[in-house]
Specification:
With 197 residues, the chain is mainly alpha-helical. The chain has helices at residues 13-33, 37-53, 64-86, 90-96, 108-118, 122-133, 138-145, 149-167, 172-181, 188-196. The model is unreliable at 4-8 and 174-185 (pLDDT under 50).
């Protein structure tokens, strides 16, 4: 995914390259909200368009990642509000949308963790993705979600406990041991576990 063309001349090179480097993280975060890859990419494209149009509002010295994630999150919730107002009966349409399963590259455990994360309540899933998958700090997650750091920690803790239940694990150590048994695996659960400890 490239930056919108109209922005090529108006965005300084360093800012442009920083934004481009963050596109994969934006796409991953967008998948927290949109199961369909095309919808997630559309959300990222809209986020980038808004960010470039409002680049003058970005405060130098602050985190570009947090700024973009906040725009993405707000854009998604605005879409939801508009859809609820403008599309009565859309629940029937949404329920008919097929969910595309994981590709062959995913291991069975990866798919299991992915599905368990998708079943988390939205606010817990959001924090798990930000901290556990995308590596955001508690401070960044707090800023992106617009709530206190204590709330972020509480949501992450509840998300971790629920994931343990969903995955049938007795403790976080059993999930870590399983990951260590397969070289190179680093699940979202394990990254969130390490960050919280």
């Amino acid at each position: 995914m490239a930056l919108p063309r109209h922005s090529d001349h108006s965005v300084p090179g360093t800012v442009k390259s920083e934004i481009v480097e963050l596109i994969p993280a934006l796409r991953a975060f967008a998948r927290t909200f949109c199961r369909d890859v095309t919808d997630a990419d559309d959300l990222v494209q809209e986020t980038l368009t808004k960010a470039l149009a409002n680049l003058h509002q970005f405060r130098p010295g602050t985190s570009m990642k947090s700024w973009l994630f906040t725009i993405l999150r707000n854009t998604f919730y605005t879409r939801v509000k508009v859809a609820k107002r403008e599309a009565p009966g859309s629940a029937d349409c949404v329920s008919g949308d097929p969910f595309v399963g994981a590709t062959q590259e995913w291991s069975a455990r990866g798919l299991e963790i992915h599905n368990a994360i998708q079943r988390l309540p939205e606010n817990q899933r959001e924090v798990m993705m930000l901290i556990g998958v995308l590596g955001a700090s508690y401070e960044e997650a707090s800023e992106i979600c617009g709530c206190a750091m204590g709330t972020i920690k509480s949501r992450l803790n509840r998300a971790r406990l629920r994931l343990l239940q969903e995955l049938g694990e007795a403790s976080s150590h059993s999930a870590v041991e399983r990951a260590e048994a397969s070289p190179g695996s680093d699940s979202a659960f394990n990254r969130a576990d390490r960050r919280a400890s």
